[in-house]
Amino acid sequence: MDIEARIKRRQRRNGEPRLIQDYEAISPVVHIEEPADRGPVLERLLDHLDPVFDGQLPPNAYVYGPHGSGKSAVITALFANLEQLPTAQQPIIHTTTRAQPPTSPSFVYVNARETASEFAFYHAVLDSLVEESVPEHGIGTETLRSRLHELVREQRTGIVIAVDHVGEPESIDASALVDLFAGLPSNVSWLAIGRDDPSATELTRYTAESIGIDRYQRQMLVDVLMTRTSNGLAQQGLDHGLARQIADWADGNAHDALAALFIAAELAEENGQDRITQANVDAAIEEVPVPCVSLGIVLSLPTNRQAVLRELIDLEESERSSVTATTEAIASAQSLDLSAGTVKRFLYEMAESGIVDRVEATTTNGQGRPPSRVEPRFPPTAFRRLYDLRQ
């Protein structure tokens, strides 16, 4: 979060003590610098990447595990540290490299939720390797690819690319990713991170190793919650017993556990409480759908689709009695400049990808197909606050 956002957050306190000291610290879509209780996983990843410490490229690998197992938390923290290994200064996009090669490979982390197209993928990789920002407009995919090829070939010790969230809705699928990697020079090594079992993805045809990450054990998840709480809430904001309750319910899923913590804290904050109560936790758990779509997926959607969802979660139940009623209510919102046809198309597309559900009514008038209402597959309170904080 930038300085301006932090200042605005403190201004909202109006001089009064607040339960939530830092929304970012308890956010289910933010990864902290030191993930809790993931030492063994980190060691396995370091074992695989060990050649980089001799200036060599490791083989390709596939990192997999269930939703909420901490894959992204570990990978982002690890790559953030590996990026600080000694390397030569990277060039600006229009310059040539220095004669002195880097002493270790360069490291690039790519969030596939935000780079689903070929252009976006090449742009993200290139932007990570050069000093100046790569233009997003007025430049074509072929130009980006050509400049990336030129730069990668000049990196004598190569590049290691981690592509996270492969195969999720609105993300890069395995086949497309294989094609993208095949189009890069040979001195590129990659880690693909996804949820599919190694036997269910073609990525493992091109990897030397598959590294599995299991769900969090209960005590590990309690430690995650208490670490986040100590950084983000007022002192004694969450009782250890309530943290255990959330961890038991989440069954090893850190995303769902953090979503419940975030919601409980928000409910307590709205009530002017100085700590989270049992009632807050019960209400938070009740709100998280099972299964729950990752809030990271929802917040990576295009801006206009997020705006539609923001209106959706504030509709009255009567306004969501059918897709048509929901469409009309959202399209009439003054904050949107979208036609009813566009809103309906967005809702159908997001239903297709599982971000919302179309739930058929239990009673009908006996004529034609029963109407269906639209229900979010993510917790509204958490999305509402996270969305509003970004505005």
From TrEMBL:
Record's keyword terms, sorted: ATP-binding, DNA replication, Nucleotide-binding
A GO MF label: ATP binding
Ranges for domain Orc1-like AAA ATPase: 38-187
Record-level GO BP terms: DNA replication
Species, as recorded: Haloarcula terrestris
Protein name: AAA family ATPase
Span of domain Cdc6 AAA+ ATPase-type lid: 223-285
PANTHER family in UniProt: CELL DIVISION CONTROL PROTEIN 6-RELATED, ORC1-TYPE DNA REPLICATION PROTEIN
Classification via InterPro entries: AAA_16 (IPR041664), Cdc6_lid (IPR055237), ORC1/CDC6 (IPR050311), P-loop_NTPase (IPR027417)
